[in-house]
Design the sequence.
């Protein structure tokens, strides 16, 4: 079932990006025949390097593709069972703004927007989206050597470490807005966020959660 989930996810991303198979093959450097096999749920001979290239082409995080490859988990249905029921479940819909690997300038302030859905049977009440960055997730880009050793901001800096999640009934969608300031030097960086309840407890601790990943450049 995981191969079929992966194929459906790839088809959804191609449709969202309005990308043809020819364009995807050209962008990724992967043959159309390989793409066709993946879209037909044939991943028996797929290499990890291939899935990483596919993820980059589909503007999604490589871990999303690898999750399918190793565990068969369906990313669009990020569900969590509580008390043996699907009382609370969250589904990722789309990156409304700044999809993975979007370009921003050093020091730029920008607004990231995610869209999610309540896939459970209970409403979301008094929830918040919390930044859970435990360490700086920064990969320096070539040409950024001149910034090393200076007192600069490293990593994405949210203007607020948590934001309220609007009350969301089962089946409803919600858009979550976070304003970031980009680092002061060229790099690729990522910030991770998770839902918490009114007592601060993380609701889906075993799931990846939401993230913002951008490439910071100096123009």
Sequence:
């Amino acid at each position: 079932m995981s191969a079929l989930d992966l194929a459906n996810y790839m088809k959804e991303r191609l449709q969202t990006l309005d990308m043809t198979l020819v364009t995807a093959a050209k962008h990724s450097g992967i043959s159309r025949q390989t793409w066709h096999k993946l879209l037909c749920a044939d991943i028996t001979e797929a290499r990890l390097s291939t899935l990483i290239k596919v993820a980059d082409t589909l503007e999604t995080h490589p871990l999303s593709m690898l999750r399918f490859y190793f565990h068969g988990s369906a990313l669009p249905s990020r569900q969590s069972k509580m008390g043996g029921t699907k009382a609370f479940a969250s589904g990722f819909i789309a990156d409304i703004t700044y999809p993975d690997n979007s370009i921003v300038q050093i020091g730029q302030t920008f607004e990231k927007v995610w869209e999610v859905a309540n896939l459970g049977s209970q409403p979301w009440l008094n929830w918040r989206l919390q930044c859970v960055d435990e360490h700086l997730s920064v990969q320096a880009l070539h040409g950024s050597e001149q910034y090393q050793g200076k007192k600069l901001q490293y990593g994405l800096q949210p203007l607020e470490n948590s934001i309220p999640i609007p009350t969301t009934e089962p089946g409803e969608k919600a858009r979550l807005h976070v304003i970031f300031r980009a680092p002061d030097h060229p790099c690729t960086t990522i910030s991770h966020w998770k839902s918490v309840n009114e007592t601060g407890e993380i609701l889906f601790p075993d799931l990846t959660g939401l993230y913002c990943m951008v490439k910071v450049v100096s123009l």
Summary: The two ends are 45 Å apart (CA to CA).
